[in-house]
Every structure is written in structure tokens, then in C-alpha cells.
Write a structure and sequence with these properties.
Layout (H helix, E strand, L loop, with lengths): L27 H10 L9 H14 L3 H35 L6 H15 L2 H17 L7 H13 L6 E6 L4 E6 L4 H50 L2
Antiparallel strand pairs: 1-2
């Protein structure tokens, strides 16, 4: 018999077995993980996971044409983010004048983008998100679904920025660490869609361009090998 009583079922994640949280299908741990990462079993994409792809982008950007392309992508991001930041400032002044604070998804999107733009290097932001786009094209199995990909994009976007950061004191180490707050699902989806349309789409295109170049080089190498082998068989 299916149990629907709150707190009486078991977590749907395999090999978990903990009681569910409220009416959720998951326990408290996996409910929070699902809220932040878009899937209860999505492995977080850490900065070290993007390191090799970022280094690859840095090597690619050493070419003059590639450097111009990367610079144009950074400028595109900066222009779009500054436009949202100006709208955020305009709404903030309007709120101060009227005394009414709006807390819609669009308003929080503007506030988040403005905070990241003001507290994080735009070039670093673009490189991280381009690397995430390349990873999605080349290692799509890393992401459970499109929702988890957007969630990881938002986490990467907010990482090392002043947006939605809180301080946590850890008595064991005696240190104060910073952690990103959990965002509502609608806000995460809105930020993720904006990131894909603004920057990550260029990561998709770069990955496809690199794959096409590698395929053409391999085909040319195969043709040269075949021609050399045929010449050797025919003889002088």
C-alpha cells in the first residue's frame, strides 16, 4: 500500500531509506539538495571540475582571433548585465520614493545580476560559464536533466560573488566560511535561462567548433595515411 501520510514514507533516492520530509518524496537532506541542484542525485559541479576546461579556453584565447572573440563575449555579458543593473537601480529609487518593496522573480533577478556584476570579475564569470557550456556538450551525462544544468549554472554564476552569500562560523575549525543561500526554484530557472541565452550558448558553439576542427584534422590525417600506404604498395 502506498503511504501518503506526511513523514511516514521513505525517501525515493536509492540506498537512502530515511523518512520523507512533509509531503516531499525525499528526506530532508535530498529535499534541500533537489532545491539547490535541481535533482536529488545531481553531483555538484565544483570549480576544480571546470579547471581543465578553463585552462583550455585560456590557451585558445592566446590566438589573436580567439582573443577578440572572447573579448566580445565578455563585452556582451557586461552590456546585458549593466542594462539589468540600471533597471535595478531605477526600481530601487522608485521603491525608496514610494515606500513599496517589490519581491517578484524579475525584481530578484535584476538584483542578483547587479550584485554579481559589482562583486565578481566579468572575465572570470564568462570563462566559468563557457567552461560549463563546453562540459554540457562534451559530458552531458554529468547532468541529470536540464533543470539540474540550469541550477549548476546559477551556482557557478554566484560562486565567489557577493550575491546571496551568508557567513557561517564553524567552531571545529574556528573559521568563518561563506555559503550560497538556497534560491527559489522560479528564481533559479529565470537566472539559468538568462545565463544560457547570454553566455552559455557560446560555450555550446565553441565545443561544436572544436569538435569540427578535430574531426577535419583527423580526416586529413586519415587521407594522408591512406595515400602513403597506397603509394608504398604500388612501389616505384
Amino acid at each position: 500500500m502506498h503511504i501518503t501520510t506526511p513523514g511516514m514514507g521513505l525517501c525515493c533516492v536509492s540506498r537512502c531509506g530515511k523518512p520523507t520530509r512533509g509531503y516531499s518524496r525525499y528526506c530532508g537532506k535530498h529535499t534541500l539538495h533537489d532545491q539547490r541542484h535541481g535533482h536529488p542525485e545531481q553531483l555538484p559541479v565544483l570549480k576544480r571540475d571546470l579547471r581543465s576546461t578553463i585552462d583550455r579556453l585560456e590557451r585558445w584565447a592566446r590566438h589573436p582571433d580567439a582573443a577578440c572573440t572572447l573579448s566580445s563575449i565578455v563585452d556582451h555579458y557586461r552590456e546585458n548585465a549593466e542594462a539589468l543593473a540600471k533597471r535595478d537601480l531605477k526600481l530601487r529609487l522608485e521603491e525608496d520614493r514610494c515606500g513599496i518593496i517589490h519581491n517578484t522573480v524579475e525584481r530578484r533577478l535584476l538584483r542578483t545580476v547587479a550584485n554579481v556584476l559589482g562583486s565578481k570579475n566579468p572575465r572570470v564569470t564568462v570563462l566559468e560559464l563557457l567552461a560549463l557550456g563546453v562540459m554540457y556538450e562534451e559530458q552531458s551525462h554529468v547532468f541529470k536533466n536540464h533543470t539540474s544544468f540550469k541550477s549548476e549554472a546559477v551556482i557557478t554564476f554566484l560562486r565567489n560573488s557577493g550575491a546571496f552569500r551568508k557567513k557561517t562560523y564553524r567552531p571545529a575549525s574556528g573559521k568563518v566560511t561563506a555559503a550560497t543561500r538556497y534560491l527559489p526554484r522560479k528564481l533559479t530557472a529565470a537566472i539559468g535561462e538568462w545565463l544560457i541565452d547570454t553566455m552559455i550558448i557560446y560555450g555550446f558553439k565553441l565545443s561544436r567548433m572544436w569538435n569540427d576542427e578535430a574531426r577535419r584534422k583527423q580526416e586529413a590525417k586519415d587521407r594522408l595515411t591512406t595515400a602513403t600506404r597506397e603509394t608504398a604498395l604500388v612501389g616505384p
